[in-house]
Amino acid sequence: MRETAGRLSERLNWLVERVVALLMVLLVLDVWLGVIDRYLFHWQLPWPEVVARYLMIWAALLAVSCGIARREHIGLSILISRIPGPLRRIVLVSMDGVAFLLFFYIAWFGIGFAGGGASRQAMIFGMTLALPFAAIPVSAGLAMLQLVLTAIRDLGTQSLTGQAEA
Description:
Keywords: Cell inner membrane, Cell membrane, Membrane, Transmembrane, Transmembrane helix, Transport. By secondary structure, the protein is an all-alpha fold.
């Protein structure tokens, strides 16, 4: 089961990393277009700044699950490294549980937030804000899934010293 969870986590992370990379490429191209527009062509395009904001939000929030999959998310490694082995395992599993509850809370209320965005419109595009706001529950759901998969994969045995060196 641990190997299966590890493979699923790896595959999901591979896909999300590619999506984040694509969003970052689009973000860079969009910002370049905005700069070229402003200083060279003077087209006065109203949308590059807004698109950049939405792309950045999606990329940053999706990248959270990538950090979780690699165990590169923020932790109290200085304190945890000083805890004896058996107790450390309990603390690490508990931290995964607390993080899962946090992301569940974010996803739960993010669904309502994204639903509320369906009735609001972006000023420039005339589109609803449901898609930009959906970044919150989607990324929290991915983070929860990665937390479960990595918790099963590691079972509280992840190395804290290897994280800093890697």
